[in-house]
Amino acid sequence: MPEAKYLLVGSSHAGLEALRAIRRLDADGSMAMLTKDSQLPYSPTVLPYVMSGRSKPDAVILRDRAFFDETGCVYAPGQAAQSLDTKARLVTLADGVQWRYERLLIATGAAPAIPPIPGLQSVPFHVLRTLDDAVNLRTRMGLARRAVVLGAGLVGLHAAETLAEAGLAVSVIEMKNQVLPGYIDAKASERIEAAFASHGIKLLLGRTATQVAALDGGVSVTTDDGRAIEGDMLLVATGVKSCTEWLAGSGVEIDRGVLVDDRMRTSAADVWAAGDVAQGLDFASGERQVLGIIPTAVEQGRIAGFDMAGDAKQKPWAGGLPVNTYRFFGRPAVSVGQAAAEGDGFEVVEQEQPRKYRRIVLADNRLVGIITVDDPFDAGIMGELIRRRVDLGAMKDAFLADPTQVGRRLMSEMWR
């Protein structure tokens, strides 16, 4: 039976960062990384570029075989975890092989959430979550003229842009009344929507798909207002869900994800979780939430790795902070924190110009969120101002006029 002092299940950002952290403190402890993916590690953020052909599949890996050889970590692709026995400290794989561990990291990420639309499961459809998905989509879009995309989040919009640039007629169906719901406010959304419309992409906002049916080698999607949207291919991009099914009966406490504390420890002894599968503290609300972004995965992975290796001085998790950067047709949109917040207790300052838009959200003279379109800023600096709850005080007007420069000045003074 194979065994490891450190067993890492999952190979993306959280798992890789945990590996690096562990090796900084324990250079020799036996280690293995298991992943259901058949590839070397890669970032999900590169998938739209593989789909478009701008990046080759073999050019987007995060770590090569030499890295695992140098770090003394067994890398085992194509090994899907099927169950976990925390009492016996065993992970059972889909092929029946069992791995024994001393300390376990759950970093299995998330998978596409497929909505229960009548007829959907009876027709061919695509998702975009793995490298194989991206390669398959690139092949399929070369044979299609029309595409239907369900969902106007980051994945759906990236894919819609790629499909349109490849010459397809694209329709996007989104149940919310704006694109990127949850990331940006309505005015920022309007600017992105206008850009998509100018490139011939039809956005059906505030509409729900009620039926999917096969149609002459393609599909027909019926919406709640009775329209039938036809396409030669269908992409489902309606969100993701944490991959926790294999943990059933393990004793690991699960809500929307694996519940973790401020050191990424789960409810089971010697088991940690990090990344898109982990449900940890949210900075703004103080509640535990799943926050599926790369900066969060990296930081959680680092904290988990140091804790697994016994570092008592490691700084605990202070809470997740949403940070999203998005480029559409060469134009930037960036949001940090509670960028779309409104209501009592919030001061919202919107600055609209013909070629750029900025929305700054304050509470008690402290920054809690910022979003811009066509007006890039230093997201790291803004995040630090939010986390440190910096009182802008007399600098408030100057900050509103030039957030990046004033933010850098403030942080420079605090770092001295």
From TrEMBL:
SUPFAM superfamilies: FAD/NAD(P)-binding domain. Its cofactor is FAD. Residues 5-301 form the FAD/NAD(P)-binding domain. The keyword Protein biosynthesis does not apply. InterPro entries: FAD-bd_OxRdtase, FAD/NAD-bd_sf, FAD/NAD-binding_dom, FAD/NAD-linked_Rdtase_dimer_sf, PadH, Rubredoxin_C. It comes from the Bacteria. The keyword Flavoprotein applies. It holds the Pfam family Rubredoxin_C. Residues 322-388 form the NADH-rubredoxin oxidoreductase C-terminal domain. One of its GO terms (molecular function) is oxidoreductase activity. Keywords: FAD, Flavoprotein. Belongs to the FAD-dependent oxidoreductase family. This is Phenylglyoxylate dehydrogenase.
